[in-house]
């Protein structure tokens, strides 16, 4: 791809990501004012089993990528870390007061967040170990691609 194509891709990424950032602030404020404090979810079991199934698939994919020394390791480990943080957040914020909240908080602090930190470490090490990453990091910032 020529320099103009890279520049156009970078410009498009800046515009789209900038629009996402700018729109998320008022949207979040709106949601905080508009949403009810409580909501009965009719698909509660499906929500959690679906999310945990996706989490398991990411863990399996990350394990396989590490085993195979795949170029996908950094991406999969980053996605796994993100999903683990989301899991901890939703477990704690949706738990009922009492024992359920204590268990959710303990799981977050002792299992999910440490696993997320470890997954992020795996991602960073995998990215740093790639020859392409080393070559990109040695180029001047104006020539790196998005």
From TrEMBL:
<feature type="transmembrane region" description="Helical">
    <location>
        <begin position="45"/>
        <end position="67"/>
    </location>
</feature>
<protein>
    <submittedName>
        <fullName>Uncharacterized protein</fullName>
    </submittedName>
</protein>
<keyword id="KW-1133">Transmembrane helix</keyword>
<feature type="transmembrane region" description="Helical">
    <location>
        <begin position="12"/>
        <end position="33"/>
    </location>
</feature>
<keyword id="KW-0812">Transmembrane</keyword>
<keyword id="KW-0472">Membrane</keyword>
<feature type="transmembrane region" description="Helical">
    <location>
        <begin position="74"/>
        <end position="90"/>
    </location>
</feature>
<feature type="transmembrane region" description="Helical">
    <location>
        <begin position="102"/>
        <end position="124"/>
    </location>
</feature>
């Amino acid at each position: 791809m020529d320099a103009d194509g890279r520049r156009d891709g970078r410009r498009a990424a800046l515009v789209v990501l900038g629009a996402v950032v700018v729109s998320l602030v008022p949207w979040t404020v709106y949601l905080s004012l508009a949403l009810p404090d409580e909501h009965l979810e009719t698909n509660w079991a499906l929500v959690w089993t679906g999310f945990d199934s996706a989490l398991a698939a990411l863990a399996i994919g990350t394990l396989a990528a590490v085993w195979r020394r795949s170029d996908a390791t950094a991406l999969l480990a980053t996605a796994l870390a993100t999903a683990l943080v989301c899991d901890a957040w939703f477990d704690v914020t949706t738990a009922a007061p009492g024992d359920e909240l204590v268990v959710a908080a303990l799981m977050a602090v002792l299992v999910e967040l440490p696993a997320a930190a470890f997954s992020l470490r795996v991602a960073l090490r995998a990215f740093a170990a790639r020859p392409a990453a080393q070559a990109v990091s040695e180029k001047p910032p104006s020539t790196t691609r998005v």
